[in-house]
Amino acid sequence: NADIQFDSFDILEDNDIRQGLKTYSQWPTYPQVYVNGELVGGLDIIQELLADSSQSLKGHLGLPESSLEINKQNITATTDAMEIDNAALNARLKSLTHRADVMLFMKGNPDTPRCGFSRTICEILSNADIQFDSFDILEDNDIRQGLKTYSQWPTYPQVYVNGELVGGLDIIQELLADSSQSLKGHLGLPESSLEINKQNITATTDAMEIDNAALNARLKSLTHRADVMLFMKGNPDTPRCGFSRTICEILSNADIQFD
Fold first, then answer.
1. Taking CA 208 as the corner, what is the angle to CA 138 and CA 232, rounded to the nearest 5 degrees?
2. Angle at 131 between CA 130 and CA 137, to 5 degrees
3. CA 215, CA 195: separation in Å to the nearest integer?
4. Which site in 37, 149, 179, 185 is 20 to 30 Å from 24, CA atoms measured?
5. Alpha carbon 204 to chain centroid distance?
6. Rounded distance, CA 113 to CA 110, Å?
7. 42: helix, strand or coil
8. Phi-psi map region of 45: left, alpha, beta (phi>0 left; psi -120 to 50 alpha)
């Protein structure tokens, strides 16, 4: 019986991961094997290690042989993976909150809001001539729950300006009722086209940097998802290239089972 569990990721299902991992790993081809989040290499490297009879493939990969070693390593790996997953979620939340100058997290979307509060806040923003992007929290429970902790704000909708939380419908209604300036003014949004263009250039650059950080955090999370992680074309049951098929066979024959 195999005493090391492996996981795999089909790069054909996610082009961001497929292209991003090449830069992240500085390794241009697939499949790619990671052990404890560190790149080992592709099929050629695994075949070289297999051919070196000085120790087993497990030994070459630094994998534990005994059950006691495995249990200790699994406890540490699980804790590390949870911390990395949390960091990846926070990076994704930061990316989403910066996706537009004004970002609305709501139930449904502006065309088909799925609660009265979300409908009302869309109407207020539109009537104030405020351009905004939105995210439907009902479509992603990780974001729905994670944003509550990230923002320390327990309800929806939530409005962000330049990545900073403004609040929910009650806050927006209070700002709207304060006639000392427009809602745009209260939110610190530019009024003139020149101001808007300057702000858009800065926001676009910042958003690209934040998106890259979020992708790298997601890649780090994926490479740590299991002690041994294989990025391949297809999956172990139905590999979609010869290299992926061969590397699955080698790992299985070395007493390594894919989850």
1. 70
2. 110
3. 30
4. 149
5. 19
6. 6
7. coil
8. alpha
Question: Which residue ranges of the chain lie beneath pLDDT 50?
Answer: 1-3, 67-68, 70
CB 58 within 8 A of CB 65: yes
Cβ neighbors of 38 (< 8 A, separation 6 or more) are 223
pTM across the whole model: 0.60
The terminus-to-terminus CA distance of the chain in angstroms comes to 13
- What's the mean pLDDT when you consider all of the chain? 85
Q: Long-range contacts made by residues 198-204, C-beta under 8 angstroms, separation at least 24?
A: 199/101, 200/101, 203/98, 203/101, 203/162
Residues 240 and 232: their CA atoms lie apart, in Å, by 8
Which two three-digit tokens encode residue 126? 């539109």
Q: Residues 118, 132: contact at Cβ < 8 Å?
A: no
Q: Which amino acid is at 24?
A: Y
Give the ranges where 152-234 is alpha helix by DSSP (H).
169-177, 183-186, 193-223
Helix axes 141-151, 67-97, angle to 10 degrees: 80
Q: Are strands 164-167 and 158-161 parallel, antiparallel or unpaired?
A: antiparallel
Tokens of 8: 């795999």
**219 and 91 Cβ atoms separated by less than 8 Å:** no
Give the C-alpha distances (Å, rounded to integers) separating 212 from 25, 94, 172, 205, 231: 14, 11, 31, 11, 20
- Calpha distance 102→131 (Å, rounded): 7
User: Within 13 Å and on the Cβ side, how many CA atoms surround 110?
Assistant: 14
Residue 132, Cβ neighbours under 10 Å: how many?
A: 18
d(CA 168, CA 154): 10
